[in-house]
Amino acid sequence: TKWRDKWWSITNIEVHMHRTYRGWTVNLQKKIKGRLKDRDVILAREPAPGFKKASDKHIKMLVFSDRKYHTEFRTLRRISKLGEYEFACQQTYDQNLPQLEKVNILWIGYRSLGEDNYLLNQGTEKRLKNFVQNGGVVIVSGQDNDGGEKNLGWFPGKLSGVEGEVQMGIRPSQNPGNIFKIPNKVAVGDIYTEDSWNKGGRGFNVLASTSDGRGVAVGKYKHGKGMYIITSLHHQTFFQVARSQRLMENLLYLAAKNIQK
Q: What pTM, to 2 d.p., does this model score?
């Protein structure tokens, strides 16, 4: 099977396997899964339910993804509970954002707003702003920000995209609240960013800047009953997403505390 093929690629070729492990492959699988479970590795967790299996107690999160970058959703769907909050998670590639009005959190995935062409139409932009106005929370992962102040009709405040290079590490502001502490202590030096934002305008709260201090790495903006959480997270590879895992959980925790059901 494909699954067994993947395991053989991890455990070396069969003829040489005795050099690293003596025993059956199925027993090696059990040992590795056990180690991962003990260390609470994100991909070893049970996934959050989809919307059809969600109960009234679940906070529903819709993840708008780019088909080219799938690693971010693989992590998000494994975040099923944070403190007192339980999550249901579902993915869409549809730029019309179906079910938006039926969820509590919209996660705009890495570069999902478009790389060569901006994907949202004016109708979807208006729905998105109304979603936040009425109590929803939008979390924005890193985007392709070559357009400066263009293609920002989804955001009601003042914001400008800044093209940038990949950087490692972010710099928390003087008063970032608990975003880097609760529920996880975040190693801010491990976070990757790329294209970022500036000119947040009045009411925009910068929680962290990029490593070079020139762009917004994490910020939040209240709008009506809801909130935008804007980030510059660079999530091209699973390794980069793994570095952000604790921060991603903290962002969801902050969102859960602020949603208006």
A: 0.84
